[in-house]
Design goal:
The complex is a heterodimer of chains A (726) and B (225). With 726 residues, chain A is α+β, with helices and mostly antiparallel strands. Chain A contains 25 helices and 28 strands. The longest helix of chain B has 11 residues. The chains are: A alpha+beta (726), B alpha/beta (225). At the A-B interface, helix 8 and helix 10 of A face helix 1 and strand 6 of B.
Chain lengths: 726, 225
């Protein structure tokens, strides 16, 4: 079959890229080989547009065992324990088929984690939808939430935290990011690097079907009006089989049978085999006739490009095949030796005793194109909002508007659909700043949170990138955890557009600055470009997933008030920054100006000192102040507890709207026993932490002196109404 | 006291119940679904999860598995059997318990802490509870909506075979306190000999102050003596 330009484009390859392919293999590829190239060279697998920028991120630290480049990142949490985690996007499939798209997103990220030897202990998600008024939003929301729950609940891993956001920018391109966190023993971590020649390459798990062919290429292109037709490229998830695969793999990992293991994720058999060989500087030979197939007459092309789920590729030590097979037989899973490692440095594909494809591994991996795409700097709009020109509103009305808005409403409609308690180690569920999951049989725990701020990033990508790392860091501190490392999911528009590439480069610059300063390295992640439809790109949406450690867990700390007459202290300085705030967006539909300034020095100092206070047991409850400002944070602390507050008016800042709704960074509210106040104040003063005593907790009423008084029950109702009536 | 937890492919609360049993000083062992004999045991637990992926119908395939014949035999001889969540569904599929579990009324998976009332505190599973004691307990299911025919419902009521009913925190059994649409708010039932208990809520999730509360402890301590 002659490879025409049309065929090349259908594979998502540029004509210039085809020329490079011909040069690399010194001939014209056949269709199978072209398919393999398209699977390896697309944006999703090759990171060709992002690699140059990703290299700048800090990835090292004493706590890091394995940084980016493996299936997931690995960090040290003391003793012989390691935490393995990663976040990944499944945006495009979820828009086309929300239930299966979201479900397989969860399945895929879980495999990344247990491939490395970890038992998954927590799932998180960051999901972004268009305007609630958009006709597609409701069904997409329903489908995605059911899909995430359907997979996680069935496999029996608690979904402990997440964020759900609505913004018109996602009307035609939703975001579904899933994060998995697992626990392993430090000396039992498995990598994907192949070693040794003539070792058995084993296929385990589900059979291969025709689903998901070209899935990775789909995720590397923009949508257009024909996107719905791409439904057949969305994979179908089977959490039941994944549960069996998880147990079988962990059982096999107990001894020393495995040299290398890799899940078949995007680009399936192609990327898993090439990655293993490439890392080991070896060749790999596959006999495709042996691949277990679900459908009849599957061609080598289909087998190599299928993205059927719940499959793994394993390279075994000599003579371990029989024992390994026994384990997979026990779990009723396919176990077939489909090939071997070779010294040819080629990917060799055989079918019916004939070589049907042969490509040098380096042409697929290290020699894949890397682009230093043109990018332009964002010229931030420094518009300041003149409050005097806006229609006057009451604080109470503004607060109610925020608390009842889709973005701030209580999300139990969603989280009640996720099993958050299975495995019996969930100490704190979603709803607080971060979830807390105990390490099984130990008295230590990890805290986890996912965060994003698309509006901030759109306005000022560097500041936005910095801010979101800081907010994530704060969320872990607020529950008493020492932040250790992050994973990031970088959701952006079309990288071939200078401005979008600029958003990417600058957001990464911001993330880098914050991570470096806070010693908060990036250990894994995923890039998702081409989020947009018909040239309309989404707002830049980097999502940060952070993991922190609570060394000795006694009582979990959360944001709910604990008693009356406690003193409330606001840590960090309030300047009253309202541009890009939730206050202006919800009350005046104004999205303008710069996001709040991020002072990394204060961020670090405030956070570390709060952690010190928490460790000294002075803190009854604590909460990060973010979207919606001080008053929103205070009401969140009230909702769910039986206690309200009595807050004094500020002494310095005269504009109450700025004071109560400003979104200045590096701030926390803490509740302390009044008798401990002198000791707390001394520590804060001694360490140059700016703080204000803002009032007290009280029974039943949420009150700002002379301004408003609402019953806490009403606050609860206001916050809980939206989802139930949507 | 010896306990055996049956593990099906897709069970996912098997470790949780084993941890709880061991914490309560049971001598526990795990039994694989393909086994054809049971070890000597005083209590058989069928754990929660998604046995066989809930394919066909929740519990339907597990109800026909090899080990189930042994479970039925042991139950007939008076061995204590506890089915939790998917375990309850499996018990109804085997016929050891009558009735069935339909999809939740709101057609969604529900995971939350609810309240249940101890209706009969005179059994091997409940004697450490007070009558009408209110427990706060976690549920996590898609099909927990208990349904049965009129004759069976009458039998359940008359013979004291209703183990627990969903209620609010004050103990009111009402439509508002019924999370999944169960007939008469029924959360758990016994067989006529009261040696088999099937319940949708998860007592094994309620044995640890740090992660929840200890409202499930007395179910296990009732079994111990």
């Amino acid at each position: 079959m002659k490879i025409t330009n049309q065929i090349i484009e259908k594979h998502g390859l540029k004509l210039e890229e085809f020329k490079i392919i011909k040069k690399l293999i010194k001939r014209e590829p056949n269709l199978l080989e072209l398919g393999v190239f398209s699977a390896m060279w697309n944006e999703h697998c090759s990171y060709k547009s992002s690699r140059i920028h990703l290299k700048k991120l800090p990835t090292k630290g004493k706590q890091v065992i394995q940084g980016p480049g493996e299936n997931a990142g690995v960090i040290d949490i003391g003793d012989d324990d390691a935490i393995i985690f990663k976040i990944e996007s499944h945006n495009h499939p979820s828009f086309i088929e929300p239930y299966q798209g979201a479900a397989t997103g969860v399945g895929g990220i879980l495999r990344d984690v247990f491939t490395m030897g970890a038992r998954p202990i927590a799932l998180l998600n960051s999901i972004h939808f268009g305007s609630p008024k958009h006709p597609k939003t409701k069904s997409l929301l329903n489908g995605v939430v059911s899909g995430i729950g359907g997979y996680g609940n069935c496999i029996g891993i608690p979904t402990v935290a997440g964020e759900t956001k609505f913004n018109e920018t996602y009307n035609e391109n939703i975001l579904v990011n899933a994060m998995a966190v697992g626990h392993a023993k430090k000396d039992k971590i498995f990598y994907s690097k192949a070693k040794g020649i003539n070792k058995s390459v084993v296929y385990v798990g589900s059979k291969t079907g025709r689903d998901g062919i070209h899935g990775a290429s789909m995720a590397s292109a923009e949508f257009d009006e024909n996107s719905e037709e791409k439904k057949p490229t969305v994979q179908v998830g089977d959490p039941f089989t994944e549960k069996l695969l998880l147990e079988a793999c962990l059982e096999l990992m107990k001894d020393n049978s495995i040299i290398s293991i890799q899940d078949m994720g995007a680009a399936g058999l192609t990327s898993s085999s090439v990655e293993m060989a490439s890392k080991g500087d070896l060749g790999i030979e596959l006999d495709l006739e042996k691949v277990p197939c679900r459908e009849e007459n599957m061609t080598p092309y289909e087998m190599m490009l299928s993205e059927s789920q719940e499959r793994m590729l394993i390279i075994l030590e000599d003579h371990k095949e029989k024992n390994a097979k026994k384990i997979f037989d026990k779990w009723d899973l396919d176990f077939v030796i489909i090939g071997k490692t070779t010294n040819t440095n080629n990917l060799t594909l055989k079918f019916k005793n004939k070589i049907v494809g042969e490509i040098p591994i380096e042409a697929l991996a290290s020699k894949a194109p890397i682009y230093d795409r043109k990018w332009s700097k964002r010229k931030p709009q420094k518009n300041e909002i003149n409050l005097k020109k806006l229609k006057k509103i009451k604080i109470e009305d503004a607060l109610i508007k925020i608390l009842s808005s889709p973005n701030h409403s209580n999300k139990s409609w969603i989280t009640d659909q996720f099993d958050q308690n299975v495995m019996c180690d969930t100490v704190q569920k979603s709803g607080s700043d971060a979830a807390i999951v105990r390490i099984h049989n130990k008295d230590k725990a990890i805290a986890v949170s996912v965060d994003s701020s698309a509006n901030y990033c759109k306005s000022h990508p560097i500041l936005g990138g910095k801010q979101i790392v800081c907010e994530n860091w704060r969320n872990l501190i607020a529950v008493g955890a020492k932040p250790l490392a992050i994973t990031n999911c970088l959701n952006f528009g079309n990288p071939e557009n200078n401005e979008i590439m600029g958003e990417f480069a600058e957001c990464l610059e911001g993330i880098k600055q914050a991570c470096e300063f806070l010693n908060y390295p990036v250990v894994s992640g995923n890039v998702s470009f081409y989020n947009g439809t018909n040239k309309k790109n989404i707002y830049p949406t980097p999502v940060i997933g952070g993991v922190g450690l609570i060394k000795k867990l006694s009582k979990p700390l959360n944001h709910e008030f604990k008693k009356e007459n406690s003193t409330l202290v606001l840590i960090g300085k309030t300047f009253g920054h309202l541009e890009q705030s939730c206050f202006l967006r919800e009350n005046y539909s104004i999205i303008d100006g710069l996001p709040p300034e991020v002072n990394l020095l204060n961020e670090k100092n405030n956070g570390e000192n709060l952690l010190n206070l928490i460790e000294k047991n002075y803190i009854l409850s604590s909460h990060d102040v973010s979207s919606g400002g001080l008053i929103t944070a205070l009401s969140e602390m009230s909702i769910g507890s039986n206690y309200g507050v009595k807050i004094q008016k500020p002494k310095n800042l005269t504009n109450l709207m700025k004071y109560f709704f400003g979104e200045d960074q590096a701030r926390y509210i803490i509740e302390i026993d009044t008798k401990n106040l002198p000791k707390v104040e001394k520590i804060l003063k001694d360490n140059d932490v700016y703080y204000e005593n803002i009032g007290f907790t009280q029974k039943d009423h949420f009150e700002i002196e002379g301004e408003l008084k609402i019953s806490t029950k009403d606050l609860f109702k206001i916050n809980n109404a939206w989802y139930n009536s949507y | 006291m010896k306990s055996s937890v049956i593990v099906f492919p897709g069970s996912n609360c098997d470790r949780d119940i084993a941890v709880a049993l061991e914490k309560m000083q049971f001598k526990n062992q795990m039994v694989w679904h393909k086994d054809t004999s049971l070890p000597k045991t005083d209590l058989i637990v069928i754990p929660g999860g998604f046995s066989y992926g809930d394919y066909l119908r929740s519990g339907a395939i597990a109800g026909k598995s090899l080990i189930i014949d042994e479970v039925i035999k042991a139950a007939d001889e008076g061995c204590l059997v506890l089915g939790i969540c998917n375990g309850f569904q499996i018990l109804t599929e085997t016929g050891l318990l009558k009735g069935t579990l339909l999809r939740n009324k709101n057609l969604k998976f529900i995971n939350k802490d609810v309240h249940i009332k101890v209706i009969n505190n005179q059994t091997n599973f409940s004697k450490k509870y007070k009558k009408d004691q209110i427990l706060k307990i976690n549920i996590a299911h898609n099909e927990g909506n208990f349904f049965t025919d009129k004759t069976h419902l009458e039998e359940l009521t008359k013979e004291g075979l209703i183990a627990f009913k969903y209620c609010d925190e004050k103990g009111n059994v009402s439509e508002e306190s019924n999370p999944n649409g169960s007939l008469e708010n029924i959360a758990g039932i016994y067989n006529s000999k009261r040696n088999i208990l099937g319940m949708m809520p998860h007592p094994e999730r309620m044995v640890d102050e740090l992660t929840s509360n200890k409202d499930g402890v007395n179910l296990f301590s009732s079994l111990l003596n």
